[in-house]
Amino acid sequence: MLYHCAMSMSVLVAVFLVSPTFAQLVQTGPIDPDNCYRIEKIRPNLVLREKAHLVGSVRDSTNAPFQNSPVELRKYISQREQVIVRMTLTDGSGHFDLGIVKPGAYRLLASHTRAFKQPSAVQCPNGSHCDLEITLVASPTDQPDASCPIR
Fold it and tell me: Most distant CA pair in the chain: distance in Å?
């Protein structure tokens, strides 16, 4: 009886290993390196006309602060090229200080993931002192740009 059970199990395992197996290949990133540039148009979201001290806070739509969260300022050169100028972390209240920044076109990235949409336009109405109040909105994760890097 023991031999019969062992033999039955061997036949079952052999049938399972030899039978056709179906699988689905899931691509996690674009094959075409230009894909992200085609589906997501990147433009400056902060333009400074004069030198300014950039401070502010980052909150979500429920007014909860982003604590110890990266905030990055990039010099906008083109859609394909932005150069990091400053990077800081928010404090426990969601506040950040990027220091004095020269005039120019910039990308201010207030979230380090695609879980939240980046601010589309940040205004600096007070001239040399910018106190930016940024509210980030949740972003759907099933969009074509979900696998693209943060830009």
Answer: 90
